[in-house]
């Protein structure tokens, strides 16, 4: 009886440890595991197009100053009539995917709006600007989330020429200077073609004309003029690259070195894994399914000095258990020990993701059940199947039942009467963390209960 008890516990411990610690190298299928999408290969490269030409049109309005009786908008409306009175074109060069410069030429023809109540005026405004450009999507490192959308910020200096079209100063012009800045949302429609909107603010630090052109201040009285533009345009990237740098996923040599180094670090970390927690790294561990708490040698093998196939510490534990029972171990005590192993779920068959066939490591456990049923012909057994939570409930219920049926079929083919086996399906086992791969392995199983 002592040998039978030792054998039973040893088989149980080895099979449970092997199943709980087995590495799952297969890709997830029916038990469903989300995989992050790979980036579009057409967007990946070591080079990108740095130049682009741009053109836009829209509305420009001088905000201040105005002569009394002249204004751009109807004072009774927050938004005035939509008037297309601006055209512009320019070129942009990106030093990197994050920063660049641009030069832009703008022409604005400012006039009163029809039915707005303003006196008639016309101001021809020609401007050239030189600006720095920042790709905000790149700066905040959200280009993968943004996809085809982009957002540029531009700011710099501008020089402009103002000349009234009507009024007493229609033959007078002046040159002004100041700053300009704005935001440009973008959307890529082709690899090197995008559309964009732009909202810009111009500020003249030296201006003598009012925007209506009817008033010209003295030279010593510099005015601060403000002009707002809302435009829509098209940008075309130039170069031999696959795509403009605003959207390209850049991989330079340094990135490749870092990726290689990260991979090497990952390999080292994997080598240092200790699957069975015996203190011996896997790459040195000859026996990677040793029983927790059992002493091992430097190669991870459980210590068995008397070479009887049972680890010394486990053998000692059983001997002590027998001794504490006043050496009165009986067939009934052995039977109870075996029934406890079976009915409390210590003996189980385990399954891979989406599979209804027991994995190879479950052979010993199913063999244990087979031997017991053959030695106790008056006993019957319930087989209950389980699945993890990943996937639909309907699918998991069906899979759990199929797993129980598969184990039953093995026992029947091994000589156990079909009438002695009852099939149950408990569907999803929700007792473990759904996000843990290792925890889910423990509930993809069938358990047994002797009656």
Description of the molecule:
The protein has about 450 residues and is of the alpha+beta class. The chain contains nine helices and 14 strands. An eight-stranded antiparallel barrel has the order 2-3-4-5-6-7-8-9. β12, α8 (about 395-415) and β13 form a beta-alpha-beta unit. It is elongated and about 120 Å long. The two termini are about 20 Å apart.
Mean pLDDT: 78
- Strands, total number: 14
Task: Give the overall shape, derived from the CA principal axes.
Answer: elongated
Strand content: 25-35%
Structural class estimated from helices and strands: alpha+beta
Radius of gyration: 40 Å
Summarize the biggest pleated sheet: 8 strands, antiparallel, barrel
In helices, the fraction of residues equals 10-25%
N-to-C order of helices and strands = HEEEEEHHEEEEEHHHEHEHEHE
Strand order of the largest sheet: 2-3-4-5-6-7-8-9
Ranges where pLDDT stays below 50 over 5 or more residues in a row are 1-7, 9-45
N-to-C CA distance: 22 Å
Question: Please, how many helices?
Answer: 9
């Amino acid at each position: 009886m002592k040998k039978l008890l030792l054998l039973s516990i040893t088989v149980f411990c080895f099979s449970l440890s092997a199943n709980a610690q087995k590495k799952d190298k297969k890709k997830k299928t029916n038990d469903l595991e989300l995989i992050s999408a790979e980036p579009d290969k057409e967007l990946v490269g070591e080079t990108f197009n740095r130049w682009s030409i741009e053109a836009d049109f829209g509305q420009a309005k001088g905000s201040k100053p105005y002569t009394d009786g002249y204004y751009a908008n109807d004072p009774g409306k927050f938004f005035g009539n939509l008037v297309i009175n601006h055209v512009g074109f320019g070129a942009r060069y990106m030093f990197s995917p994050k920063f660049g410069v641009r030069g832009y030429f703008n022409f604005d023809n400012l006039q009163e709006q029809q039915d707005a109540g303003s006196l008639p005026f016309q101001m021809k405004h020609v401007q050239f600007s030189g600006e720095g450009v920042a790709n905000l999507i790149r700066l905040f490192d959200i280009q993968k989330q943004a996809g085809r959308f982009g957002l540029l910020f531009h700011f710099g200096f501008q020089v402009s020429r103002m000349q009234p079209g009507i009024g007493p100063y229609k033959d007078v012009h002046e040159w002004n200077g100041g700053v300009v800045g704005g935001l440009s949302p973008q959307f890529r429609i082709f690899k090197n073609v995008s559309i964009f909107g732009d909202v810009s603010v111009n500020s003249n630090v030296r201006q003598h004309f009012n925007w209506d052109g009817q008033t010209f201040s003295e030279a010593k009285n510099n005015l601060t003029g403000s002009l707002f533009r809302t435009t829509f345009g098209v940008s075309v990237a130039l170069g031999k690259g696959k795509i403009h740098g605003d959207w390209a996923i850049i991989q330079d040599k340094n990135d490749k070195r870092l990726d290689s180094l990260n991979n090497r670090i990952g390999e080292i970390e994997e080598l240092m894994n200790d699957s069975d927690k015996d203190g011996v790294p896997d790459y040195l561990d000859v026996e990677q399914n040793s029983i927790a708490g059992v002493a091992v040698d430097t190669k991870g093998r459980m210590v068995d000095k008397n070479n009887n196939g049972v680890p010394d510490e486990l053998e000692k534990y059983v001997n002590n258990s027998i001794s504490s029972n006043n050496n009165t171990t009986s067939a009934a005590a052995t039977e109870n020990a075996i029934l406890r192993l079976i009915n409390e779920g210590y003996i189980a068959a385990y399954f891979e993701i989406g599979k209804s066939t027991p994995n190879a490591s479950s052979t010993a456990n199913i063999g244990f059940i087979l031997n017991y049923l053959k030695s106790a012909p008056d006993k019957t057994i319930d087989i209950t199947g389980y699945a993890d939570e990943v996937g639909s409930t309907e699918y998991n219920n069906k899979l759990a039942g199929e797993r129980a049926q598969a184990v039953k079929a093995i026992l029947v083919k091994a000589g156990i009467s079909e009438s002695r086996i009852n099939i149950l399906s408990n569907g999803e086992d929700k007792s473990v963390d759904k996000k843990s791969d290792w925890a889910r392995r423990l509930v993809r199983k069938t358990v047994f209960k002797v009656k």
